[in-house]
Amino acid sequence: MEPVRMCVGCRTRDSRSALMRVVAVDSRLVIDEAASAPGRGAWVHPSRTCAELAIQRRAFVRALRVSGALDTQTLEEWLSAMEIK
C-alpha cells in the first residue's frame, strides 16, 4: 500500500508518487524532487491549476508554517518548463 497525501491546491487525496513535494528555503518555494529534504513539506499535483490554487489560497504558507510571503518564482518556472515538454 502506497502512502497517501493531500494536494494543498485542489485538496484531494492522491498517492505520494502522483504529487510533488515543495519545501521553503529562505522564503523561497523549492521543489524537492527526491522528497527527502529536511523540514516541513507541502504536497501538490504537478499541474499549473493546483499550484495556482495553492498560491492564491496561501496554502503553501499555511502548510509550511512560515510567516510572511513566499517567493513562488522557482515553482512557476518549473511548471512552465514541464508544460513545454
UniProtKB/TrEMBL annotation:
Domain YlxR intervals: 5-67
Coiled-coil zones: none
Domain of life according to the entry: Bacteria
SUPFAM superfamilies recorded: YlxR-like
InterPro entries documented for this protein: YlxR, YlxR-like_sf, YlxR_dom
Family matches, as Gene3D superfamilies: YlxR-like
Stated name of the protein: YlxR family protein
Species for this entry: Microbacterium sorbitolivorans
